[in-house]
Design goal:
heterotrimer, A alpha+beta (about 400), B mainly alpha (about 350), C alpha/beta (about 160), A: alpha+beta, 4-stranded antiparallel sheet, 3-stranded antiparallel sheet, 17 helices, 9 strands, about 50% helix, C: about 160 residues, alpha/beta, 5-stranded mixed sheet, 3 helices, about 25% helix
C-alpha cells in the first residue's frame, strides 16, 4: 500500500518559477528525495554559429545568451580577440570598459535579487529590484546608445566617449541607489519571514564548492575569496581599490548578502574610476591611423568611433587565446582558436551558470518542496546563459 | 384580490424581512460581492503604492481604476471553463461553487444590529465558526478531483494547515465567550459598554484571532495553499473561466466573515450608534461593515510586506506559539472575571 | 610587489614543468599559461600529479576537430580555486585521439567539476569519455539525429547572403 510514496513532480518549462528549464523532482510527502536538472531548452548553438561569422560579428552573438549581463561577456570575448591580434586598448578605453562592466554588474545583481524575491513570494522586492535596475540601464543607454545589448567594447577600445555631465548624473544615481539599498535591508533582509526561509537552507560547504568547480557569488558565500578581478586583474582593475565580499556560512542568506555587498563594492569602483579616468584616445593607435582624416574630424566633435575598414575583415594570425573575466554570476571563460582566416576555427565559451548547474543536484536534497524556489533563486542561475 | 400597491408592499416586506435580508443582501450575498470588488481593488492599489507603481488605472480613470474588478469578473464570465478529460467532472465543477457558498453561509448567523437578525440563538458565535469549517474539506476534494499532482499537493497542504489553525481559533473565540459570559453575538456586543471593547480587555485573544484569520484564508505571510512559485496555483491549478473567478473570491469571502466576527467580538460591533443612524434597525450595520473593512485592509496590506512561510514553519508557529497564546488568553479572561473587571 | 609575484609565478611554473617532464611529449610556457601535450594513455597520470601540486578544478574542456589529420584534439584548462597563488597559473592539457575511435579516460574521479563539461563535448563532438557515469544528451533536443554538430562535416545551413 505504501509502495508508491514517491511522486515525480515535473517542474517543467511551464511553471511560474522554473525559468527555461525543467527540474525533475522526486518528492516523498513534503521532502524532496532527489532533483535532476534537465537543461538545453534554449540552446541556440552559439559555438557553432561563431565558426561561420567574422570576428567582429561575433560581438553581438556573444552578448545574446546572457541578457542580464552583456557587457562582461562582450569584454571577455574582446580580451581574447585582442590577445590574438596583439592589440592593446589605450588607458582611457580601459577605464570606460571598467565603468560599463561595473554598471552591468549592479543591474544584473538587482535582477537576481528581484527574481529571488518573487520566488520567495515577496512581490515588493521583485518590483523594487526591477525598478532600481532601470536607473543603471538608463545611464548605460546614455553612455552607449542601447539599453541592454551594448556592443560597446570593440577590439582596440570602445565605441563612444563619456557624454557631458555623465559624472554628476552618475553620482546622483549612486546616491539614490544607496538609499534604496537601505530600504531593501529593512523590508527584505531583516524580515523575519525571509530569515526563516533562507537561513540554513541549501548550505554549500567550502570543500564541496571547490571540488565541484563552483564560481561567482555562490563560491564567495562559502568562504573562498576567489575573484578573477583580484587573481588576474584586467582592464583598469589593477589601479582601483575594492574588497572581495566573502561570507562563511554558505547558506542562501549568505549568497543574497554577498550579492548586496557586491553592489556596494561596484558603486565604490565606479566612483573611483570616474575620478581617476585619464584623458586620451578611446581607440588603439593601430586602428586610429587607418581612419581617413575627414572621419577623424567627425570623431573629435562627436566623440564617437568610426570603424576602420579593416574591422570588417579582421584576420588574426594563427594561434589560440584564452581569457577570463569576472561576470556578474561568476567566472567567464573564452577560448578562441584561429587559423588565419576571417572566421574562428574553434570558439569555446564556458559561462558561469553552466558551471553552476551541478548545484541543483547537490544542494536540493533532503529539503522541502518549498525550498526548491528558495535555493534556485539564491543561485542566480540564468538558463539562457547556461545553454548558450 | 390584491391590487398593485398591495403587491408591491408585500414584495418590499418580503425583501426587508430579516430572515431574507441578512443572508441575501446585508451582510450576505450582495454585500459580499461589493466587498470583494472593493477589497481586491484596494489591495492592488495599496500594494502598488508600496511597490512604486500605479496598480489598476485605466478602468474609470477618474476614480483610479475602481471598477477594475467588474471588468475582471466580466472577463471570467465570458471565458471558456475548460474541464480536463481525466478530472472527476462532478467534483471538479461543484467544488468551487460549494467552496464559495460554504465561505459565506456563516453570515446567516451574524446580527446586523440589536433588533435586526435572521435568527437569534444563544450559541450564534459557535454556529458561525462551525459553519466555516466546511471550507477545507471542499478544498481537499477539489484538489483531488483535478487529477494533477500540483493540485493534490495543494489540497493536502490545506488539510495540514487546518490542523494548525482550527483549534487555536476556537480557543480564542472561547476565551472571549468566557469573558462576556455568553456565546450569543448580540449580547457580546451589548456587553461592550463605553471603552470596554474586547480589544482592550483581552488583547492576546485579539492578536491570535487576527493571525489565525490570516492563516486560515491564505493571506500573506501564510499564502501556503496557493503558493504560486512552488505548486502553480495549488488546488485551483486546472481552473479557468468563472470557476476560477469563484475560487479567487472564496478566500476573500472567508476573510470577510472572520473580520465581521472580529469586529463583533473585539471592536464593539455596531456600537456606538450615532444619532443620525438610529432611524432604522438596519442602519447600525454600516458601522459594523466599516470596522470590518478596516480590519480587512490591514490584512491585505500584508501582501506588500512579507514573503511566504514554508508549511512546516507555519505548523510549528501554530502549535508552539499561537496555541499557548490562545490558552493564555483563556486564563486572562478568567482572571479578568475573577477580579471583577467585567461582571 | 609585482616582481615578487612574477618570481613566485616563475617558480610555480618551473615546479610544474619539472614534475611533468617525463610524462608529456611537449611543454611550453607563455605568461601564466603552461601548455602540456600528452598521450591519451598518460592523461590520468598527469592529472593525478597536477592534483597533488594543488590544482583542484577543470575550467573548460574543449574538443577541436582536425579533419586533415583525422584527429580530435581535446584541450583541458585546469587551475586552482582554493590556492590563490596557483590560481594565477592555468595549465593547458592537450591530448589527441583518432577521429574513428575517440576514446579518452574521464577525469571525473580526479576532478568532479568536469562532469558537465565532458558531457557537453561528448554530445557536440562525439568523444567518449570512459568512466563517466552519465554520458548522455545535455543540450541538444532528444530527437536529434545526425553527426555530432560541432564537427566540420556538419555545415550550418544559411539562406540568402553568405556570412
Amino acid at each position: 500500500m505504501s509502495e508508491e510514496r514517491i511522486i515525480e513532480l515535473l517542474i517543467g518549462p511551464q511553471h511560474p518559477s522554473s525559468g527555461h528549464m525543467r527540474l525533475v523532482a522526486e518528492v516523498d510527502g513534503d521532502v524532496v528525495v532527489r532533483l535532476k536538472p534537465n537543461i538545453g531548452y534554449v540552446h541556440r548553438t552559439v559555438e557553432k554559429l561563431a565558426e561561420t561569422k567574422k570576428y567582429i560579428q561575433i560581438i553581438p552573438l556573444v552578448e545574446r545568451p546572457s541578457l542580464a549581463d552583456t557587457a562582461n561577456h562582450n569584454l571577455g570575448y574582446v580580451l581574447a580577440l585582442e590577445k590574438l591580434l596583439g592589440v592593446e586598448a589605450p588607458p582611457r578605453a580601459q577605464y570606460l570598459r571598467t565603468i560599463l562592466a561595473e554598471m552591468n554588474r549592479i543591474h544584473s545583481h538587482f535582477y537576481g535579487i528581484g527574481i529571488h524575491g518573487i520566488m520567495l513570494g515577496s512581490s515588493t522586492v521583485f518590483m523594487w529590484g526591477f525598478a532600481d535596475r532601470e536607473i543603471m540601464i538608463e545611464m548605460a543607454q546614455w553612455l552607449t546608445g542601447a539599453r541592454l545589448t551594448y556592443s560597446y567594447i570593440i577590439p582596440g577600445g570602445v565605441r563612444r566617449d563619456l557624454p557631458q555631465g555623465f559624472e554628476d548624473e552618475m553620482e546622483k544615481a549612486l546616491r539614490y541607489l544607496e538609499r534604496r539599498l537601505e530600504d531593501y535591508d529593512r523590508i527584505f533582509i531583516r524580515n523575519p519571514v525571509t530569515r526563516a526561509r533562507l537561513e540554513g537552507v541549501g548550505v554549500l560547504k567550502k570543500e564541496d564548492a571547490i571540488r565541484l568547480g563552483i564560481v561567482g557569488p555562490n563560491l564567495r558565500a562559502s568562504g573562498v575569496p576567489y575573484d578573477v578581478r583580484k587573481v588576474q586583474p584586467y582592464c583598469a582593475y589593477p589601479e582601483l581599490e575594492f574588497d572581495v565580499v566573502v561570507r562563511e556560512e554558505g547558506d542562501s542568506m549568505a549568497r543574497l548578502l554577498v550579492r548586496i555587498g557586491e553592489i556596494k563594492q561596484s558603486m565604490r569602483i565606479i566612483r573611483q574610476a570616474l575620478k581617476q579616468i585619464p584623458d586620451g584616445p578611446i581607440l588603439s593607435e593601430n586602428y586610429l591611423k587607418m581612419i581617413p582624416p575627414k572621419w577623424k574630424e567627425f570623431m573629435e566633435t562627436k566623440r564617437r568611433v568610426k570603424f576602420p575598414a579593416i574591422m570588417a575583415n579582421l584576420r588574426p594570425p594563427k594561434g589560440e587565446a584564452f581569457s577570463r573575466v569576472e561576470a556578474a554570476r561568476g567566472e567567464l571563460i573564452y577560448y578562441v582558436v584561429s587559423d588565419g582566416s576571417v572566421t574562428p576555427y574553434r570558439f569555446r565559451m564556458v559561462t558561469p551558470s553552466f558551471r553552476n548547474v551541478v548545484l541543483f543536484e547537490h544542494l536540493i536534497r533532503e529539503c522541502r518542496v518549498a525550498d526548491i524556489p528558495a535555493i534556485y533563486g539564491s543561485l542566480d542561475y540564468f538558463p539562457p546563459e547556461a545553454d548558450r | 384580490m390584491m391590487n398593485l400597491m398591495d403587491l408591491l408592499k408585500w414584495i418590499i416586506n418580503l425583501v426587508f424581512s430579516p430572515w431574507l435580508f441578512v443572508p441575501l443582501i446585508f451582510p450576505g450575498l450582495v454585500t459580499v460581492f461589493i466587498v470583494i470588488l472593493f477589497i481586491i481593488w484596494f489591495e492592488r492599489k495599496l500594494a502598488a503604492k508600496v511597490q512604486l507603481r500605479y496598480g489598476p488605472l485605466y478602468v474609470l480613470k477618474q476614480l483610479g481604476g475602481a471598477i477594475q474588478l467588474v471588468a475582471d469578473l466580466l472577463r471570467y464570465l465570458f471565458a471558456e471553463p475548460i474541464i480536463p478529460e481525466s478530472a472527476d467532472k462532478l467534483a471538479f465543477m461543484l467544488g468551487p461553487i460549494f467552496l464559495f457558498a460554504a465561505s459565506y453561509i456563516p453570515t446567516v448567523a451574524i446580527p446586523v444590529s440589536k433588533s435586526f437578525y435572521a435568527f437569534r440563538s444563544d450559541i450564534s458565535l459557535l454556529i458561525s465558526l462551525g459553519l466555516l469549517t466546511f471550507g477545507p474539506a471542499i478544498t481537499l476534494i477539489t484538489g483531488w478531483a483535478s487529477n494533477d499532482k500540483f493540485s493534490l499537493i495543494g489540497g493536502l497542504r490545506e488539510g495540514y494547515l487546518t490542523m494548525a489553525y482550527e483549534i487555536p481559533l476556537f480557543i480564542s473565540a472561547l476565551s472571549m465567550a468566557a469573558l462576556y459570559g455568553t456565546m450569543d453575538l448580540i449580547e457580546i456586543v451589548e456587553s461592550q459598554v463605553g471603552w470596554k471593547w474586547g480589544l482592550f480587555l483581552n488583547p492576546i485573544a485579539a492578536i491570535t484571532f487576527l493571525i489565525l484569520a490570516l492563516m486560515s484564508t491564505s493571506r500573506f505571510p501564510f499564502e501556503i495553499v496557493e503558493a504560486e512559485s512552488e505548486i502553480v496555483m495549488g488546488p485551483f491549478t486546472e481552473y479557468s473561466g468563472i470557476l476560477y473567478g469563484l475560487t479567487m473570491g472564496a478566500s476573500y469571502v472567508k476573510f470577510y466573515v472572520l473580520c465581521l466576527l472580529f469586529s463583533i467580538m473585539f471592536l464593539g460591533g455596531w456600537k456606538p450608534v450615532p444619532k443620525f443612524l438610529s432611524w432604522s434597525p438596519i442602519a447600525p450595520g454600516v458601522i459594523l461593515l466599516l470596522k470590518s473593512l478596516a480590519i480587512m485592509v490591514l490584512g491585505v496590506f500584508m501582501r506588500a510586506v512579507y514573503p511566504r512561510y514554508r508549511i512546516d514553519q507555519a505548523l510549528r508557529m501554530g502549535w508552539h506559539i499561537i496555541l499557548p497564546m490562545s490558552i493564555g488568553s483563556v486564563f486572562l479572561s478568567l482572571g479578568l472575571l475573577l477580579w471583577g473587571v467585567v461582571s | 610587489m609585482d616582481s615578487r609575484s612574477e618570481a613566485g609565478l616563475e617558480s610555480i611554473i618551473e615546479k610544474i614543468s619539472q614534475s611533468l617532464r617525463e610524462l608529456s611529449t611537449e611543454i611550453g610556457t607563455k605568461d601564466e599559461i603552461v601548455t602540456v601535450q600528452v598521450e591519451p594513455d598518460n592523461l590520468l597520470e598527469v592529472a593525478k600529479k597536477l592534483k597533488e601540486i594543488g590544482f583542484d578544478h577543470v575550467k573548460s574542456v574543449t574538443a577541436i576537430d582536425l579533419p586533415e589529420q583525422k584527429e580530435l584534439e581535446v584541450v583541458y584548462h585546469i587551475s586552482s580555486l582554493g590556492n590563490l597563488d596557483l590560481a594565477k597559473v592555468i595549465v593547458v592539457l592537450k591530448a589527441r585521439v583518432p577521429s574513428e575511435e575517440p576514446h579518452l579516460p574521464s577525469l571525473i574521479e580526479i576532478w568532479p567539476s568536469s562532469k558537465y563539461l565532458e558531457r557537453e563535448e561528448y554530445e557536440m563532438l562525439g568523444i567518449v569519455f570512459e568512466g563517466h557515469p552519465e554520458l548522455e544528451r545535455l543540450l541538444l533536443p532528444d530527437d536529434y539525429e545526425g553527426p555530432p554538430p560541432l564537427r566540420k562535416e556538419f555545415e550550418v545551413k544559411t539562406e540568402g547572403i553568405q556570412a
